[in-house]
C-alpha cells in the first residue's frame, strides 16, 4: 500500500507506529530511507559470517519483518531461532502475517526491547530502531546486547545519523530531501513528516555510536555501509 499519511493538511501529532503506519510501512521506508534494500541484504551476508549453530538471532524493532526474512533466507547454520521483537501491536500483527508459512524458526514477540532478555545470541540487529530509543537509555541497551552475545557474535545497527560539520550536514540533508522528492513525496508530505517525527527520531553521530560500542565492551567495530545520512555499523564481540 502506498504511503499517503501526510498527503493531506491536518493537525500533526508525534509520529507513532500505529496501524496506519504499519499498513504503508514497506512503501514508506523504501521511499524515505536511501540504501534501505542494501541494509537488508547486508544483514543476510552478516548472518552467514557471524551466525552460529544452536544460537538465537534477535531482530529488535522488527517492524514488518524484512530483517527477519533476510536472516532466515541466508541462514546456513543449524538449530537457530529468530526472535523478532516490536513494541507496536500493529507491526507485530503485520510481521506475523508476512512471515507465516515462509519462516519456520521465528518467534514474533510484542515487547519492549529495553526490557527484553537477550541471551545465547550470535547476531543482534537494530535496524532503524535505536534512533527511537531515548538517548539516555541507549548505552544501557547496547550494554545488555553485548552481555547477551556469544564470543564471535555480532551487533548490527542501521541508523539515520547526523554530522558535526555543518556544511556536510547541510549537504546530506539536501540530498536526502531530493531523494524523497525523486520517490514521489510532495513538499507538504516532506514538511509534515519532518514536523511529526522531529521529537521522536533523535539521531547520533558516527562517533557517538562508536563510543557507545566501545563503552559496552566491543573492541572491533566499523561502519560497513553508508548511503547519504544513513549508516550501518557492525560490532563484533
Q: Care to give the gist of this entry?
A:
This protein is α/β, with parallel strands linked by helices. It contains 8 helices and 7 strands; from the N terminus they run ααβαβαββαβαααββ.
How is this structure best described in words?
With 237 residues, this protein is α/β, with parallel strands linked by helices. 43% of the residues lie in helices and 21% in strands. It is built from 8 helices and 7 strands; from the N terminus they run ααβαβαββαβαααββ. A 7-stranded mixed sheet has the order 3-2-1-4-5-7-6, sandwiched between helices. It is globular. It starts with 18 loop residues before the first helix and ends with a strand. 38% of the residues are buried. Mean pLDDT is 92; it is low at 9-13.
Helical fraction equals 40-55%
Average predicted local confidence, pLDDT: 92
Low-confidence runs (pLDDT<50, min 5 residues)? Answer: 9-13
**Element pattern in H and E:** HHEHEHEEHEHHHEE
Please tally the β strands and state the result: 7
- Structural class call reads alpha/beta
Shape: globular
> In angstroms, what separates the terminal alpha carbons?
39 Å
Q: Strand order within the widest sheet? A: 3-2-1-4-5-7-6
Work out the helix count: 8
Biggest sheet descriptor = 7 strands, mixed
Using only CA atoms, what is the Rg? 17 Å
Strand content: 15-25%
Present the secondary structure layout.
Layout: H1 19-32, H2 36-50, E1 56-60, H3 66-74, E2 81-86, H4 89-99, E3 106-110, E4 121-127, H5 135-148, E5 149-160, H6 166-182, H7 187-197, H8 206-216, E6 220-227, E7 230-236
Parallel strand pairs: 1-2, 1-4, 2-3, 4-5
Antiparallel strand pairs: 5-7, 6-7
Helix pairs in contact: 2-3, 5-8
Amino acid at each position: 500500500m502506498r504511503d499517503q499519511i501526510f498527503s493531506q493538511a491536518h493537525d500533526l501529532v508525534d509520529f507513532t507506529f500505529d496501524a496506519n503506519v504499519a499498513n504503508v510501512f514497506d512503501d514508506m521506508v523504501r521511499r524515505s530511507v536511501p540504501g534501505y534494500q542494501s541494509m537488508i541484504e547486508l544483514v543476510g551476508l552478516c548472518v552467514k559470517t557471524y551466525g552460529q549453530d544452536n544460537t538465537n538471532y534477535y531482530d529488535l524493532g522488527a517492524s514488518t519483518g524484512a530483517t527477519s526474512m533476510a536472516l532466515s533466507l541466508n541462514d546456513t547454520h543449524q538449530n537457530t531461532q529468530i526472535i523478532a521483537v516490536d513494541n507496536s501491536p500493529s507491526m507485530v500483527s503485520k510481521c506475523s502475517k508476512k512471515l507465516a508459512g515462509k519462516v519456520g524458526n521465528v518467534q514474533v514477540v510484542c515487547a519492549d526491547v529495553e526490557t527484553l532478555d537477550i541471551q545465547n545470541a550470535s547476531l543482534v540487529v537494530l535496524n532503524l530502531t535505536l534512533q527511537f530509543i531515548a538517548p539516555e537509555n541507549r548505552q544501557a541497551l547496547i550494554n545488555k546486547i553485548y552481555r547477551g552475545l556469544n564470543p564471535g557474535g555480532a551487533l548490527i545497527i542501521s541508523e539515520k545519523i547526523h554530522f558535526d560539520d555543518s556544511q556536510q550536514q547541510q549537504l546530506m540533508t539536501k540530498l536526502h530531501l531530493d531523494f524523497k522528492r525523486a520517490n514521489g513525496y510532495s513538499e507538504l508530505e516532506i514538511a509534515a513528516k519532518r514536523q511529526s517525527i522531529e521529537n521522536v527520531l533523535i539521531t547520533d553521530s558516527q562517533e557517538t555510536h562508536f563510543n557507545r560500542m566501545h563503552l559496552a565492551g566491543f573492541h572491533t567495530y566499523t561502519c560497513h555501509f553508508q548511503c547519504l545520512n544513513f549508516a550501518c555499523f557492525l560490532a563484533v564481540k
